[in-house]
Design a protein that fits this description.
It is built from 23 helices and no strands.
């Protein structure tokens, strides 16, 4: 009976996503341009939907599980670490939004790699970035599937594989409906992520005796020599050095401009008014989710004083199982599942585009015709999703490792070719190639050899190496052609 009450809201949620995907698929079939609809939703997103899909894509299962779990141990210091995430939506849309929208329409680009190819006319760069995107996105998808299935199994008591196949298959099926299905289900997921957060907050404050009682309890934990609790200091009593906190402004702040799954959102909205509305809504929703969930992890220390046996990642499952009515637990579990599924669907559609639009384009020398693309795109989405599900059923250590550094790896690979390419007329393909190779290379090697220089996260050194290499290549290589300048910088070329 307990399991049925938990599963009822989840089943309704999965059915809703399938229905949204079905409606989007019908519109996809009736679209005049299959590829434009499948990969960008015919560039017709409104402001609220754009904001919701951006937030839902950025949030993941770690937002619901790992973040609060770490905040349980580090206290307010981890809230400081998470704070830069507030600016991500505003930053991505504000810096890249208008530029990418205009240029993607001018060059008829449907993917980020499309735009890179038009800007640099370099097959090696396009193939390299397509492979980076495909490998990292697939590995991240596997990691999301594993994390979501573990949460599902811990809360419902069902077998891990049953939960994985149940929600992963639904995700793959509705993603096959194309970009519109992804963004509409993302909007639903964002609302349910907020709902789950508020329910968790209610339970924590209720069982903790109210906010005053919770704060009083926290002040008695990990008390330092000066009489203050380490949980209530900005650096967790010295456990989080300033170099690491400043690194967070790169990893989850400024460098998120280089995440291709977020960049593509800048190509899909319908008007400037929608862009401005999305910047405001995304900042509010992203701040509420990222800071709210992290704060709940800190407050949970007053309710669960001892670390669960399963470690910090078991904190949220223990809160849901041990402190909620089964029906309420079923509603709350939708939050982390929604975070998982919204991230996965965005990664899958982007991975499919890397194969269908980008690698095919470079191999064949021309875009895939609509008639062929319509069959192959859905098949490729299902195939990539099925491979990721199989890998998640039997996860390998190497996949987990790739998933850990994929976020920063994507930033170190995509940041400078896009940002410098969009805003610096002098940027050329030599600079872009060197920036990708050196940035991603330094970031990856430091991760493999576990190098930690002065407490700074590896993303700082990867991005620094990428920027320096881009500058060297830019000034040693020739200027871009006049044809490129006329398209990307018409005011300079005139």
């Amino acid at each position: 009976m307990h399991a049925l009450l938990v599963l009822l809201p989840v089943a309704l949620f999965l059915a809703l996503l399938l229905y949204v995907g079905y409606r989007a698929n019908r519109r996809l079939s009736a679209s005049a341009s299959f590829q434009s609809e499948y990969f960008l939703g015919s560039r017709s997103l409104g402001g609220v939907v754009l904001a919701m899909t951006l937030v839902a894509t950025y949030g993941s299962v770690s937002t619901y599980v790992s973040g609060p779990g770490l905040a349980w141990g580090y206290g307010m210091g981890w809230v400081v670490f998470a704070a830069p995430q507030i600016i991500t939506g505003f930053l991505i849309l504000g810096v890249l939004g208008k530029k990418m929208a205009v240029l993607s329409r001018r060059t008829d680009s449907l993917t980020v790699i499309d735009l890179v190819s038009r800007r640099y006319d370099c097959r090696a760069l396009s193939i390299l970035l397509s492979l980076v995107l495909l490998v990292f996105f697939s590995a991240t998808t596997v990691g999301q599937f594993v994390g979501g299935a573990q949460i599902f199994a811990a809360i419902t008591g069902l077998d891990y594989k049953v939960g994985l196949i149940m929600f992963a298959a639904v995700t793959v099926l509705y993603t096959a409906g194309g970009y519109r299905a992804v963004v509409l289900t993302d909007a639903v997921c964002a609302v349910l992520m907020l709902t789950g957060m508020f329910l968790l907050g209610y339970v924590i404050l209720h069982d903790g005796g109210g906010l005053s009682a919770v704060m009083a309890k926290l002040q008695t934990i990990d008390v330092q020599e000066d009489g203050r609790s380490a949980l209530l200091t900005y650096n967790a009593g010295g456990a989080l050095p300033l170099s690491l906190l400043f690194s967070a402004w790169l990893l989850v702040g400024f460098c998120t401009v280089g995440l291709p799954q977020s960049m593509v959102r800048c190509m899909s909205y319908k008007s400037t008014q929608s862009l401005h509305q999305a910047m405001l809504v995304a900042t509010i929703i992203c701040g509420a989710l990222m800071i709210g969930l992290t704060l709940l992890g800190v407050f949970a220390r007053a309710v669960i004083p001892e670390l669960p046996k399963g470690g910090s990642d078991a904190l949220i499952p223990e809160l849901i199982v041990g402190h909620m009515h089964p029906l309420l637990a079923g509603i709350t579990i939708i939050g982390p599942l929604a975070a998982t599924m919204s991230t996965v669907s965005s990664l899958l559609i982007a991975a499919c585009s890397a194969v269908m639009r980008d690698l095919y384009l470079q191999a064949a020398g021309h875009p895939c015709p609509d008639a062929v693309s319509q069959k192959l795109s859905k098949l490729m989405t299902v195939l990539i999703g099925a491979v990721c599900i199989i890998l998640a059923l039997y996860p390998l250590d190497v996949v987990a490792w790739i998933n850990l550094f994929a976020f920063g790896g994507l930033e170190s690979a995509f940041l400078w070719p896009l940002v410098l390419g969009l805003f610096m007329p002098r940027m050329n393909k030599q600079g872009a190639l060197l920036g990708v190779i050196c940035g991603l290379g330094v970031y990856t090697l430091m991760g493999i050899f576990k190098l930690n220089l002065w407490g700074w996260h590896n993303i700082a050194w990867g991005c620094a190496a990428g920027f320096i290499a881009s500058m060297i290549g830019m000034y040693l290589g020739p200027r871009p052609s006049r044809a490129v300048a006329e398209v990307f910088f018409p005011h300079k070329a005139a």
